[in-house]
Design brief:
Layout lengths: L15 H22 L13 H4 L12 H12 L21 H13 L10 H18 L12 E5 L2 H18 L7 E6 L4 H9 L7 E4 L9 H13 L3 E8 L11 H10 L3 E5 L24 E4 L1 H4 L7 E5 L3 H7 L9 H5 L17 H36 L4 E2 L8 E6 L3 H13 L6 E5 L2 E7 L7 H14 L4
Helix pairs in contact: 4-13, 5-13, 6-7, 6-11, 13-15
The structure holds pyridoxal-5'-phosphate.
The site of pyridoxal-5'-phosphate has 14 residues, from helix 6.
């Protein structure tokens, strides 16, 4: 008996193009309104834990709701429950700056809905990624070994943490293939390195004790002499140095590790040399700041996050390797259902071999759109502008006898303490954030509490940093 096919249900699944045509302008208008007014929102959300959930129904709707109802809940619940990373008053942690090209490209990425696990499942997704990372390597002046026309190449990951993880997996397997035992492997990084280095090691099956924290100097840069000593001591003890991770712009203070001697030390022991420039790397768009990459030629891998300071928004982390083979060797498994003639021909890249997950988004489209809409000069000018604003603020703070800047301000992140001590600095942080106009965060260096001010939001201008200075001036107690 012939069973008639079920009638299509009315709703977005049945007519996505019609829904886009009808609701798209309304949703876009919401986005325009949000961005036009975001500077007037309290930067840090003031809602109490549990408030957001308490505003929303406990059970999902059984029947379709309209976009007007969804947008109303954005205004009623999501906006108050949001800490506004896109506010020009965002100075906390680091930035995650978005832009109109990134917003629009995200919509296009989801429209295409590509899952680019294989070249075959997304030739444009794959080839655009290779191209756009060659473009970015050129814009940042990266060593030619990272370009895709040799043994190396670039890949987009979801985060710097994942980028560092896959570099660690490649380093681990290279060392094990050379005969080292997992228990004997040792990695080295700055005492100020990001926690993702240790997390990556743990995910790779090593213990935290297999990571050596190398002391830093007064400018918070790794002491290469102490790195050399630590590696020699481990070798004497029968251990195998397999990974050295340098940071260009540490999270706390933007300390700049000396890449050349760290790379030399890694090479002397056959260890992998990975460079983490997650936040600061974007500064190399500007010729004047390209010194941050001095010595990068010796690196096996390098990561910087366009989703931090390159107007691309979460998520887009760019990882380059000088030789892709160890990465592919570490991560490649090919079940029958993924075999296909293109992959078999050896003429295409399958980026699934360069990352932990199988599936992958078409993130390259977003980076491509950002680079095309800004142009490389436009991106460099925007980043340079942020650095100028940060340095101007640092100059004003340094000239005021209430404050001390205990570490240099090489780029867009400045650290400052009140001379009255930790309590005064902490009170200033609280007072600034309580205004709702700005959000700054803190760190602790050698036991001292410091305000961290990171200047890099898309909409932040001199008027905004002037306002921040006025607030600091007004709210900071005398020395
Ligand atoms: N590395 C450095 C130097 C960072 O500053 C950060 C962010 O704090 C990270 C890594 C982690 O970045 P992601 O969130 O992309 O994993």
């Amino acid at each position: 008996m012939d069973v008639p096919p079920p009638a299509p249900l009315p709703g977005p699944w049945a007519a996505p193009a019609a829904e886009l045509a009808e609701a798209g302008p309304e949703v876009l208008a919401w986005a325009v309104r949000y961005l036009a007014g975001v500077a007037d929102q309290p930067v840090l959300s003031t809602v109490a834990p549990g408030w957001v959930r308490a505003q929303l129904p406990e059970h999902p709707p059984a029947v379709p709701e309209g976009w007007d109802e969804i947008l109303a809940d954005l205004d009623r619940v999501v906006v108050p429950g949001t800490s506004h990373w896109q506010s020009p008053g965002w100075y906390a942690y680091f930035q995650s700056n978005s832009s109109a090209p990134a917003v629009l490209a995200e919509a296009l990425i989801t429209t295409l809905g590509t899952q680019g696990m294989l070249w075959q499942t997304g030739p444009a997704c794959t080839e655009l990624e290779t191209l756009v990372l060659d473009w970015l390597a050129e814009m940042l002046g990266l060593p030619s070994a990272f370009r895709s026309d040799g043994a190396g190449g670039g890949v987009i990951q979801d985060s710097a943490s994942s980028s560092t993880l896959v570099a660690t997996l490649a380093a681990r397997d290279r060392a094990r293939r050379a005969g080292a035992r997992l228990d004997d492997l040792v990695a080295y990084t700055s005492a100020d390195a990001h926690s993702s280095v240790e997390k990556g090691l743990r995910v790779a099956g090593l213990l935290s004790e297999q990571l050596r924290s190398v002391p830093v100097d007064a400018a918070r840069a790794v002491r290469p002499d102490l790195l050399v000593d630590a590696m020699a001591a481990d070798v004497t003890d029968g251990r195998v140095p397999f990974l050295v991770v340098a940071t260009v712009g540490t999270t706390s203070t933007h300390g700049m590790d000396p890449l050349a001697p760290m790379g030399d030390a890694a090479r002397a022991h056959g260890a992998w040399f990975h460079v983490d420039a997650a936040h600061a790397g974007a500064a190399a768009l500007v010729a004047e700041h390209r010194w941050i990459h001095d010595g990068l030629d010796g690196a096996d891998s390098y990561v910087m996050d366009p989703h931090k300071w390159l107007f691309t928004a979460m998520d887009c982390s760019a990882l380059w390797v000088a030789d892709r083979q160890p990465l592919v060797d570490a991560l490649s498994i090919t079940p029958e259902y993924l075999r296909n003639p293109a992959s078999g021909s050896g003429r295409v890249v399958d980026y699934r071999h360069w990352q932990v997950p199988l599936g992958r988004r078409f993130r390259a489209l977003k980076l491509w759109a950002v680079i095309r809409r800004f142009g490389s000069d436009g991106l460099a000018a925007a980043v340079d502008g942020h650095i100028d604003l940060a340095r101007d603020l640092a100059r004003r703070l340094a000239a005021d006898d209430r404050f001390v800047l205990p570490v240099p301000t090489p780029l867009n992140l400045l650290c400052v303490a009140h001379r009255g001590g930790d309590e005064a600095t902490e009170a200033l942080l609280g007072a600034l954030n309580a205004t709702g106009r700005v959000f700054v965060s803190h760190t602790r260096i050698d036991g001292r509490y410091l305000l961290r001010i990171s200047v890099g939001q898309t909409a932040t201008t001199a008027a905004h940093t002037d306002e921040l200075w006025d607030l600091i001036d007004r709210l900071a107690p005398p020395p």
